Amino acid sequence: MDVYNAFLQGDLFEEVYIEIPVGFRSQGESHVCRLRKSLYGLKQASRQWNSKLIEALIRGGYVQSKYDYSLFTKRDGGNMVVLLIYVDDLLITGSSASMIDELKQFLHLNFKMKDLGVLKFFLGIEIMRSNKGIILNQRKYALELIADLGLGEAKSVCTPLEHNLKLTSIEYDESVQTKVDGDDLVTDVKMYQRLLGRLIYLTNTRPDITFAVQHLSQFMHRPKKSHLEAAFRVVRYIRKNPGQGILLSVASKTQLIAFCDSDWASCPMSRRSVTGFCIKIRESLISWKSKKQTTVSRSSAEAEYRSMAVVVAEVVWLNGLLKEVSPNQFDKSLVLSDSKAALQIAANPVFHERTKHIEIDCHFVRDKIKDGTIQMQHIGTTEQLADLMTKALSIKQHEFLVSKLGVKDIYQPST
């Protein structure tokens, strides 16, 4: 559903003044108007609208999620309805058609609404349904990006980055007195920034480019030509399968399975490690991330343990969220790591002196193991899906891990 003209209904609880519009004031008049209602475009408008909508929903018996404040639920016996808010766009779903109709009528009574029908597109994401589940993709968005860059006829590539590629900043090159001929600064910095911004948005349904985009985003302020060429390579990789997206399978069981990994001291400029994780509800990928760690790890075990702490925090949050929106009882979450040392640190509170310098906040992993929230398990490096989020891989390994993620391209003929 779409809400429009709703900003005009938000009462202001602070003093805001505007000049009297030209044509409505007398010559020489210097008075101003005090607003009683928020106008569209006013800085306070979105906040006032959100406040008014939340107030109405709570008054109607809908419960605001403690894990995502834009999510509201209402239960009636074994049925429930779920409402998700994004500014003035609302997504409604549930297990009861009558409860969904009741929510729509409630919203129509309180606000001026427009029902857009069954969900097909949302914020540039295409939602497609089949007997196997729901597929989310950004094919239209990807094709527009390829066309805007003039790469429609360019040769596609099999990986988003060259194997083991390590890019550096111009400041680092100057500090170590190294320079590659022709690798000067990009003259149009805003073009590079716009391109990376569009690629960042594509990671909503393309986990396979997450590491590449994270790596290239470090050079937003002063990109070099090598960075721009690498960004174009990502687009040429997208061109290979522009309709690739995430399959949310109907066959998924009620258990969270998390893969976590790190690439120790992989950044040549700061020697910080990269954390990567992906989380699935059995076969359906629901969360993933690639991010450089905030501190320098003294060992690979420490880097892996920090990565483990990040994914456990995400699992705890997802467990809470799923309990609010799902009637099913979820099994104990499973966290898979290819680091035996990190698994030993998590299991043994007095492992050895190598762990004494690790911050206390990382050790909450042990608490979650003790209270039964998660279960740790070792996995082989070649089977570690999170490896895709930490480094540029070879073509064979990249394609193997992507196939295991549960991403599909229904526009490509099956082989």
Automatic annotation (TrEMBL):
<dbReference type="InterPro" id="IPR013103">
    <property type="entry name" value="RVT_2"/>
</dbReference>
<protein>
    <submittedName>
        <fullName>Uncharacterized mitochondrial protein AtMg00810-like</fullName>
    </submittedName>
</protein>
<feature type="domain" description="Reverse transcriptase Ty1/copia-type">
    <location>
        <begin position="1"/>
        <end position="162"/>
    </location>
</feature>
<dbReference type="InterPro" id="IPR043502">
    <property type="entry name" value="DNA/RNA_pol_sf"/>
</dbReference>
<dbReference type="Pfam" id="PF07727">
    <property type="entry name" value="RVT_2"/>
</dbReference>
